[in-house]
């Protein structure tokens, strides 16, 4: 059999020995086929490699440990060949009978040759030669035959030299361990199937997945994403959880791999004419039809029988790796993930990610440079921005998968291309969900809801991953729907399309991104903000306060140009740190910073030093107005609520709040007393908690989703307005009773009905 060509390819810091077996008479499986093992070992005698890839329509990948076992055998054979252990001088003395030398020569040479195809059997044969030689030596010793003793000592010395070489190899060591475990000699090549369980992937997919060692892990969860099984494991000696995904394209029979490869080859040159695509979904539908037809034709030509479902499944796989995002598409479709990280050098370490339930996880996916090139090409086309050494940063939003993409390359990333992907939640977070997840107590949710209604100017503060943006979108849902909202973002992280569908009037402004190449047509954040202030009476939301827009924002807040609630997010850790950053880093005058009414701080907490991080609201602080230079030294902050990790709850400073300047302003502007304000805050808090209670009672998480939470909040406001119209004031006790009755009799029943239908 004429085996295919080979190449040694550098990927990351690994050398891959890739051998092409397409058209060969045997499958590229060195465990099953002796001639394949011989081919690999022969190539390893003259080539250095860290991993072995045997390629046909699919690829078998042997990892570093397995490659090292094979390399040790290649080195063993090379050492025996270099020493020419079958030469006469190694087999006996000058007086040894020629027939005996010939027999020994044939036995040793057969042992060496057999090592290429069956190393362990070769080792066992060598052991038998040594035992037989030892018996012969004992006989001649007893007979006092010194000539034959010298002869056999030379031969046994050579055999022992060979045995020592075998004993030092990892393959023989592992083979002996395996033999000791099963207690008997396995049949055929079973021992190699235990040692060389390869990873398998389609040849047109660059990324690799592995499941090695999964049987020793503790399975803690499993679910499905786009037809792929996801397994969450806990390792007894690792801090992070393991996220293993098993896509169907990695476990297909050979004939389906053949169909996938041929289909991809056929459709590679397909360019549709007179077809206008409105969006990615429309493009996918079109190409899926093309792929199904192509698969049907190729299957018929090669007498491969497929069901309709099998054709559809194969078309989905081809779509994923042609017009889709490859293996990344599966990860970005798992909405339990929040972040995906791919560090350079590619092909070296597995992708790792952040799971909303299990925190940081290591995956079983090795992302290759080949896959990265195709991915970057797609991202460049979608963003319309360059990505090269002159522009080593690519930052944009992948709209169809609701993901923010950040890619970096050389020279910024010394080791090559790397990615950080931030997944946005499918549906907007709600305050009720935060109460349910213990991010904040119900009373804090009531306070935030009231701040929005009373048109406070707020900064939502926290580190990356603290939940700033999530909290901002939840607080936006407390805005009365009769108000217009203007949202300014450089990266589109807020779920504006979903909020529009839920009834909010929103105008979104997209500003120049802070990183990467910037187009001439893109507007700076500062200019966009000044434009927003000319777009009429509106609520103003700033996705993130970073630099130049800070001055314009505070200028507008200070002179009352907005006239409505203003909210934005900013990186920081406390009210004081934000004053320091806004004034000293962003250049906003201290007098202007005082236009901020409230600072709301979130942070990831590691309770009792745990490795797990849990998001919590840790501070609600009012910015007082009667100070001049340093709010920390001049009592410029009033703490409303502060987090206590020992109780996993927030302390309320009720007595201090009575002296709030902001409360007094609301009392003056609305003509209401302190008790009325507090009763409304408590009512809003009770409404959030009641939704959580109903969710737990009936097992209906959907009642906390935005569509129902917004509806419930709106009903509460309408019932309160009805009381004002009829009685001139609100009886909050009766209001809560009426609203809870509506939730029980209308909202909950509708959600339960939808659940049963689902």
Structural write-up:
With 758 residues, the protein is of the alpha/beta class. Helix content is 45%, strand content 19%. The protein is built from 25 helices and 25 strands. The strands form four sheets. The protein has a nine-stranded mixed β-sheet with strand order 7-8-9-12-11-10-16-15-14. A nine-stranded mixed β-sheet has the order 19-18-20-21-17-22-23-24-25, sandwiched between helices. The longest helix has 26 residues, at 732-757. Mean pLDDT is 88; it is low at 274-278.
Task: Describe the structure concisely for a colleague.
The protein is of the alpha/beta class and about 750 residues long.
Write the layout of secondary structure elements.
Elements: E1 6-11, E2 14-20, H1 34-44, E3 51-55, E4 58-62, H2 64-83, H3 98-115, H4 119-143, H5 146-167, H6 170-182, H7 190-195, E5 199-202, E6 208-209, E7 218-225, E8 228-234, E9 241-246, H8 254-267, H9 280-301, H10 308-320, H11 327-332, E10 337-342, E11 352-355, E12 359-363, E13 365-366, H12 369-383, E14 393-398, E15 403-408, E16 418-423, H13 431-436, H14 442-453, E17 457-462, H15 468-476, E18 484-489, H16 496-501, E19 505-510, H17 525-532, E20 539-542, H18 548-559, E21 566-571, H19 575-585, H20 590-593, E22 598-605, E23 614-623, E24 637-644, E25 649-652, H21 654-657, H22 661-670, H23 674-698, H24 706-727, H25 732-757
Parallel strand pairs: 2-3, 9-12, 17-21, 17-22, 18-19, 18-20, 20-21
Antiparallel strand pairs: 1-2, 3-4, 4-5, 6-13, 7-8, 8-9, 10-11, 10-16, 11-12, 14-15, 15-16, 22-23, 23-24, 24-25
